[in-house]
Amino acid sequence: MKRFFGALVFICSLVFSSPSYPQELTDEQTQEAITFAQRAATYVLYHEIGHLFVAQYELPILGREEDVADNIATLMLLLAEDEDKDNILLDSAHSWFLSNDSATDDVISDAEFYDSHSLDIQRAFQIICLMVGADPALFAEVATQVGIDDDRQESCQFDFAQLTNNWLRLSEAFIKKTNEGAKIEVIYEPSDEEFEYAAAIFQNGEILEFVAKEIEENYSLPAPARFIGKNCGTANAYYDPSKNDVVMCYELTARFLDLIVEDMLRYPEG
Ligand SMILES: [Zn+2]
Known about the structure:
A four-stranded mixed beta sheet has the order 1-2-4-3. The protein has one domain (25-266). Helix content is 61%, strand content 7%. A hairpin with a 4-residue loop joins strand 3 (237-240) and strand 4. It is globular and about 55 Å long. By secondary structure, the protein is of the alpha/beta class. The chain starts with 8 loop residues before the first helix and ends with a helix.
């Protein structure tokens, strides 16, 4: 996982040369912002893999698939018990809080309530809830910091245990036991000029390669899949079941960068 966020330094110049990035950031802050954007994008990749698993393994779900995909992503990262993966979860939760804070409207619209996704702030709390549910000693402080009270922190332990039991039971059927299983092809399409800096940050994190290898090694995929980085015209990511493609849009990495840079400039003391 270490090499994941390795060669960042030269990307700083790319970020600084991007018109949307103010010069006030120090080199250290720029590197922090890049790592944050890579981690937040990585969580979204695991979320899309959640959709891929639901489709490819025909997982029984009785709830909104978007919540299921989030929980699969969180559990895959959390059960690894790896500090780098914990940091992906923490930065992802932070990204949802920032996204919630950046909403221009104070009133939540009906469209947000009936959306297939939970509200950004709910997605943030759910990640932290499962973290504190998994390891109260390690994550109680962050759970308290974000405002989850003691009662809920305790019931999060039940939520974590229940979801983990069900996930381990379901995934047992497709955990790789022999050498069988289809491959994942990684493709980076060239970016248009506007998002070249974000594409470089995304590609240099080697996120698609690393996660593709992890999935290939640990799960027996029934059909070949592709992980694709590309421009989409919107800050998004999606799973296309007709092609078994996971698409990560460069605009999404740019959006995560925007959120954290705005936050750094607003609260320069951190
Ligand atoms: Zn989704």
